[in-house]
Amino acid sequence: MTSKTGYMAAVIFAAACLLRLGADETNEILTVAVPKLEGDIELDGHMRDAAWSKAASFAVNEAAIGKVQPGCETTGKIWRSADALYLGFRCENPYLPQVLKAEVRPRDGAAYGDECLEIFIKTPLGKEPTRQIVLNALGSVYDGTFSAGPQADWNGEWTCATSVARGAWYAEVKIPLADLGGKPESVMINCCRAGYGRGADKWNSTWKAPGYFKPVVKIVLGP
Questions:
Q1: In what helix (H) or strand (E) does residue 4 lie, and over which residues does it extend?
Q2: Where residue 20 falls among pLDDT bands split at 50, 70, 90?
Q3: E strand or H helix at 7, and its extent?
Q4: How many domains does the chain have?
Q5: For the segment 148-170, what is each residue's pLDDT rounded down to a tens digit?
Q6: Rounded to two decimals, what is the model's pTM?
């Protein structure tokens, strides 16, 4: 998919799948305390800085569309500094680097149609729409708001870096707290992945289902 039309078709299909997945869910909110650590890091897509070893861990492996195949799991790290939220990801794919469905794209290009990560954030500012952050395996980005569908009507100050290795790609994401509505004590979030194997092999996974397009995890940032 390389167009908004194609993406919207995927949105509708994913929503239907998520409704089926969520039929037996309790809708209990997952709450995660985000550790506050000192200092900034160099975003280079390798997750080598010491802060990552002290971060909270999570997984992005609940199925949304397609079954996550063995060897294609996604793991994440999350922490915060005084002024930013940091997320790091290891996205397994045994076909890398020989097969990589991703292109270098301009900002707000169709990065969501590639091997990518999507982050959905609901800020505590009343009725403000969900914010959507997308980065593909080559570091191309898209951001905007998401309600009935994606709208490229918001550009945040967030930054990212990625790297591709044998069997996996990595991403580091820095989101200034200003992008989260100032310095909130908590926000709702979900982290999701679109992965591609050979041919038409594809899967979508999420931190917590149902909710590929919905922030259903509460992260507590503290004062």
A1: helix 4-21
A2: very low
A3: helix 4-21
A4: 1
A5: 788 999 999 999 999 999 999 99
A6: 0.86
Distance CA 223, CA 55 (A): 18
Please say whether the beta carbons of 72 and 92 come within 8 A: yes
Give the domain range for residue 135.
4-220
CATH number, domain at 194?
A: 2.60.40.1190
Tokens of residue 67, six digits: 């079954």
What are residue 26's phi and psi, to 5 degrees? -85, -10
For residues 162 and 135, the answer to whether their CB atoms sit within 8 Å is yes
Question: Residue 114 in contact with residue 137, Cβ under 8 Å?
Answer: yes
> What are residue 173's phi and psi, to 5 degrees?
-130, 130
Q: Note the pLDDT of residue 9.
A: 43
Q: What is the H or E stretch that residue 11 is in?
A: helix 4-21
Residues 6+ apart with CB under 8 A from 35: 54, 55, 56, 79, 80
Tell me how far apart the alpha carbons of residues 163 and 145 are, in angstroms, rounded to a whole number: 26
